[in-house]
Write a structure and sequence with these properties.
Two copies of one chain form a homodimer. Chain A is of the alpha/beta class and 288 residues long. In chain A, the strands form three sheets. A five-stranded parallel beta sheet of chain A has the order 5-4-6-7-10, sandwiched between helices. In chain A, strands 2-1-3 form a three-stranded parallel beta sheet, with helices on both faces. In chain A, strands 8-9 form a two-stranded antiparallel sheet. Chain A folds into two domains: 83 residues, Leucine Dehydrogenase, chain A, domain 1 (Rossmann fold), CATH 3.40.50; 132 residues, Rossmann fold, CATH 3.40.50. Chain A has ten helices and ten strands.
Amino acid sequence: MTKKLIAKPLIKKIYADLKNEISTNAWNPHLVIILIGEDPAAKYYVENLQKKGMKKGFKVSTKLFDPAISQEQLLNEIEVLNTDSNVHGIMLQKPLPKHLDESEIVMAINPDKDVDGFHPLNMGNLVLDRDGFVPCTPNAVLQILDFYEIETEGKHIVIIGRSDIVGKPLANLLLRKNKTGNATVTVCHSRTKDLPKHTKEADIVIAAIGKAEFVKADMLKESAIVIDVGVNQVEDPEKGYKYVGDVEFEASFEKVKAITPVPGGVGSVTTAMLLSNVLKAFKKCVSS
Amino acid sequence: MTKKLIAKPLIKKIYADLKNEISTNAWNPHLVIILIGEDPAAKYYVENLQKKGMKKGFKVSTKLFDPAISQEQLLNEIEVLNTDSNVHGIMLQKPLPKHLDESEIVMAINPDKDVDGFHPLNMGNLVLDRDGFVPCTPNAVLQILDFYEIETEGKHIVIIGRSDIVGKPLANLLLRKNKTGNATVTVCHSRTKDLPKHTKEADIVIAAIGKAEFVKADMLKESAIVIDVGVNQVEDPEKGYKYVGDVEFEASFEKVKAITPVPGGVGSVTTAMLLSNVLKAFKKCVSS
């Protein structure tokens, strides 16, 4: 099998399918990004998303708000977007200013437009295998497993990390009774005793802890498949900085059966998942 | 530590607290049970629940419907209960006739009255550690762990079973960052290869598969704590039938550190959890 599980051919396929479906039907799916303040990384990400989306036939708008916006004002703005039939997806760009209650804001987004998949109703739908929006990063992991025909049924998958946006939803997805599910799933985290004992037993290791090169090659068995969700910025003597994953790549690549690179792995698929969710939201909207 | 983790002292405490809180405040929490048809086991359970609830100060009513009730009629009846300010909790007694769409019915129940904790919004709240209703059986397991001061932090807990009402919510609860959480959690099920390999490594085994005495003593390590969620009716030469758990009790009791009995274990706590949820729903209602 392919040893370096690169995202490129998968992304190409997803984007071609999205573009084709949108243009064939002359659809106009519209994503609105809520951006509060001028965080440079957030702004860069949003501009990039806009360019990418427009190329595929999406309308991507940004609602830029002053960092001093009150909770109430923001909730009102969200309500306007919730009821606007020309808006199909709403994305909340982080980070949010500290005075805002993120949990309440996420709850205020219409679950049918919640393309991030962070609303508790969508999380519940995910657990119960009901139709809804799956968060982009866990969905990207499933797409990579599926694209490279990595069987999950009966496999022991060890997830490192229990975040609300990656580890927990992923664990629930991998337990589903379908092609990318049916796995025996272990969730490890900061309180886990003897992490290497668990990872060494795993057929598939999914690292989602946000710590640069935390998982070492000697924590993995040779037949393991490694999915690296981490994207960590570290210093680089030549370029100033570079991005690395949660897994020590070179040594692991030499050892294991297959591994996703960083960059060019899971992270690259998440934007495609977001746009897929926008198209799904559009279709929900026109069919209802 | 106590070797046989019996529910009795815990239940006694929960009921005393509920009764005390209700009578002190002169509250009148009201649970409505939706019962469709005359399944004898369901009827027996409901009557029992009514007696128990009334003793503690709850009003427990039954809405008995003809098994031929249509989906639409039932949804209308639920809507009436949803908006009735004198009804605080709604419980859907199973089994439902096959022509009814259970998923749609659960979705129709007001999440603030969903004392079963089966609505996707409550499941999402559970995963995201937000306030909501936790399903009774997983909650009963947590209460037993807490009552017997069984530490979960850093422990490796193996859950056998991935049902929507026990295995999956329990896995998410045990990952929470609190006193009955912070565990390393493995979920095994029918597709798991080499189940004994997993159970033998577990500090705590939770069996929730619904198969009589499926887990044998030789699948457990001596220091293990065993929580048996199963309640299975089996033939008994003397009494006609009896109830046993998912774990072979006698041999396991001799071997392991502690184990819940069946009957008299997890199952006995679930009704107390349901009534706790009804009181919680009442308090939500009066505070809003």
